[in-house]
Specification:
The protein is of the alpha+beta class. It has 16 helices and 38 strands.
Length: about 700
């Protein structure tokens, strides 16, 4: 295949509801363009883009798959992305690499929550998008109703560019509303342009007018022309459409049946004739430069995907933004300040790769065997300091702890998980020293299954997912005093130390107790959050100053393993105001022990409380589920803060404890039949209710008793 320049390239991503036909339409496009001479089906597990064994097993796409074809001297890159929300990482990275999103809708069911989310995500990316209503051969397809729902949900600038004349069985006629011709398709997927029959003229005019109005409203001059003349010329409509589409002011609607190959050729003709080429797009770099997609000058490219399997090897996928990359070229990894050699460059189509001498700006490709590269990295020629914004993935919905099935394989599980997270950047793997667990944060339960499959099949290690611990905190709510004498004077070096302490909640600027004299204070911010203020109130040298750090050490040991649940303790003031020493047997170890135990005793006497992490949660659901969400939240100690409306979806804002949030993914799925999603971020620590505190303390006690 020849090397294409950006002006002759179209970069599309197919996104939208799982099962709407993205993979099947990709197959139809490849068949109609002659890339394949036999069309596969998802059912027969022989499509070009669903080529991975697990996808055959499941019957849906799990990984995004780039394919390319040539149509009318134009290279068309299509990335077929999975529709299942759990694999959103693949869809998001594909949307970054592509220039234009095609949102697929199953015409039998109409738009749904996933369509709403796809629209929201595209708007966030400010990239042009279009809709493709597939399965027009289905029963009871009501194009007018779907179009009305789309305008209602996404705005009046959703406009038909095609009108399906005979949806249902035998679907083969589409009216092209820009050239106002009837396209009659033949069984080979080709079409003849015919005059619109009289009985369809009125409907076609009505539909075309929607397109004309949407384009006219996108530009003042065109609007004036439209008001003056009541219409737009074909040329004004076409040019106006191109600008309006590129600037996200009109969202065209196409119709097709991937199964019957109807609408595929007309779609390809449209994207080549009327969609913006790759050189029409610009990038704003992290250095705030506006970068044109131009093959002249220095090279820069962005890594959007990594995939490796035994057959394909380790592939790194990229989008060239400026210049070109040719095989053997050395580029600087801006993100990791290291040089890497692109030994070979390829165009990828499913499981096949075609080596090319070079890949130009505006095109996507892949290379092999890059050593120290991650998704989101930018590469450039030496001295051309540019980097591109990272892909923003949705917040992970599920948190689990990972344990190996076989003892001793902790490290193997850990390194394998890290490798998996490098290839799937929508996953987060984190080892938490505090919780003493390896945590996996995933987009959903199917992504967890996929991770388990990858561990087992690729890394040959078996793992289990268990409930993660919650990073509770402990503190006190009133003051208390205690004294502790540590005495060990039987045989060998003796130990003696006595410490009297007063503790109270740390409140900035609060007065000191009136009956003790402050000699020195040391305020420390704890690295697990909160403060400790350590105050020396020793008078008369009852405890030598050199033992004060040891007392604090003992206290800190207890602060790391709080008495109630073994969690970190925060926000405490500790006054050491009295004590005793022994001339021989007093030493640091003795005072450390005395400090630790004095602190423990006073802590349990100071009305200690367990604090739990509370998160702000935004629950995004179709309006019909809001009532259920609202009544469900209080049952999981959620506090509702408010509701926002965004088109057809509503966003319920609430606060929720992490302990409940860990279970929320599956609850929301069952409340909304998987038509809801949520995002969250840490808000604050709050006291747990007494009944929960008791439960946590009982569990901890049971747990520590079992360990002893
Ligand atoms: N009747 C009919 N069925 C279709 C059409 N297109 C796809 N299908 C069927 O719909 C099902 C889903 O098709 P896919 O192509 O896998 O859908 P997808 O959008 O790729 O789904 P995900 O990969 O999960 O995102 C399969 O059983 C297809 O055979 C169509 O135009 N008409
Ligand atoms: Mg698919």
């Amino acid at each position: 295949m020849k090397v294409y320049e950006a002006k002759d390239i179209r970069n599309l991503v197919f996104i939208g509801t799982s099962g709407s036909g993205k993979t099947s339409f990709t197959e139809s496009v490849l068949y109609q363009s002659g890339v394949i001479n036999r069309k596969g089906t998802v059912e027969d597990s022989n499509t070009v883009s669903d080529f991975i064994e697990l996808e055959h097993e499941k019957g849906y796409s799990i990984f995004s798959a780039p394919v390319y074809l040539e149509w009318n001297n134009t290279k068309v890159n299509i990335i077929d992305a999975p529709g299942t929300e759990d694999f959103v990482g693949e869809a998001k990275s594909s949307m970054y690499a592509a220039d234009i999103s095609i949102i697929f809708v199953n015409a039998v069911n109409g738009i749904d929550f996933n369509t709403d989310i796809a629209v929201i995500r595209n708007r966030d990316l400010t990239k042009p998008f279009a809709f493709l209503l597939n399965k027009m051969d289905g029963e009871k397809v009501d194009f007018d109703q779907i179009l009305a729902n789309m305008k209602d949900a996404y705005g009046v600038n959703v406009a038909p560019v095609q009108y399906p004349v005979n949806p249902g069985n035998g679907f083969n006629k589409i009216i092209d509303l820009s050239i106002m011709k009837l396209l009659e398709f033949t069984p080979d997927g080709k079409y003849n342009e015919l005059e619109i029959p009289a009985d369809l003229k009125k409907k076609a005019e009505e539909m075309r007018n929607q397109l004309v109005e949407a384009v006219a409203e996108s530009d003042e001059d065109l609007l004036t022309k439209y008001f003056d003349e009541g219409d737009l010329s074909h040329q004004d409509l076409e040019e106006g459409f191109k600008n309006a589409f590129l600037n996200g002011k009109v969202f065209p609607v196409f119709v097709a049946s991937a199964k019957l190959n109807i609408g595929t050729n007309s779609f390809l003709d449209f994207i080549v004739n009327d969609f913006p080429a790759a050189d029409k797009f610009t990038y704003t770099s992290n250095e705030d430069q506006v970068v044109n997609v131009d093959s002249n000058g220095n090279t820069s490219l962005f890594i959007y995907k990594m995939y490796s399997d035994p057959k394909l090897g380790e592939l790194t996928f990229f989008k060239v933004i400026t210049g070109s990359v040719h095989s053997g070229m050395e580029l600087i990894n801006h993100t990791r300040s290291s040089a890497e050699r692109f030994s070979q460059v390829f165009s990828i189509r499913g499981k096949n790769r075609e080596e090319l001498p070079s890949i130009q700006a505006g095109d996507i490709g892949a290379t092999v065997k890059l050593k120290n590269t991650h998704i989101n990295d930018t590469f450039h020629t030496k001295g051309f300091e540019v980097s591109y914004p990272k892909i923003v993935y949705p917040v992970q919905k599920i948190r689990v702890a990972v344990v190996p099935k076989t003892k001793g394989e902790e490290e193997k599980v850990g390194t394998s998980l890290h490798q998996i997270a490098i290839e799937d950047a929508s996953l987060i793997v984190e080892h938490s020293p505090e919780l003493r667990q390896t945590l996996l944060f995933a987009q959903g339960d199917q992504q967890l299954q996929l991770t388990k499959w990858r561990l087992s099949n690729r890394f040959k290690v078996e793992a289990e997912f268990i409930e993660p611990r919650v990073p509770y905190r402990e503190t006190i709510t009133k003051s208390a005093r205690s004294s502790y004498r540590h005495k060990k004077q039987s045989g060998g070096a003796g130990q003696f130390a006595e410490v009297h302490i007063h503790i109270e909640p740390y409140v900035e600027g609060a007065p000191d107790p009136s009956d003790i004299t402050v000699r020195g204070r040391d305020l420390q911010t704890l690295n697990w959050g909160g403060n400790i203020e350590y105050i020396n109130c020793i008078v008369g040298g009852v405890i030598d100053a050199r033992f004060m750090p040891a007392i604090l050490k003992g206290i800190m040991e207890k602060m790391e393993f709080g008495p109630l649940t073994g969690s970190f303790v925060r926000d405490i003031r500790v006054y050491v105001y009295d004590g005793k020493m022994h001339p021989v047997d007093s030493n640091e170890a003795a005072f450390k022990t005395a400090g630790r135990n004095a602190f423990k005793e006073s802590f349990v006497a100071a009305a200690p409380k367990i604090l739990e992490p509370i998160y702000n949660v935004s629950i995004v659901v179709p309006e019909q589920y809001v009532g259920d969400i609202m009544s469900d939240l209080p049952t999981r100690r959620g506090v509702i803060l408010g509701i926002d409306v965004q088109g057809k979806v509503q966003i319920v804002r609430a606060k929720m404890p992490l302990a409940e949030l860990d279970k929320y993914y599956s609850s929301l799925k069952s409340i909304t039949q998987a038509k809801g999603t949520f995002e969250y971020e840490f808000a604050e620590y709050q006291q747990v209710p007494p009944i929960v505190q008791q439960e946590l303390m009982d569990n901890y006690k049971k747990h520590t008793d079992e360990e002893e």
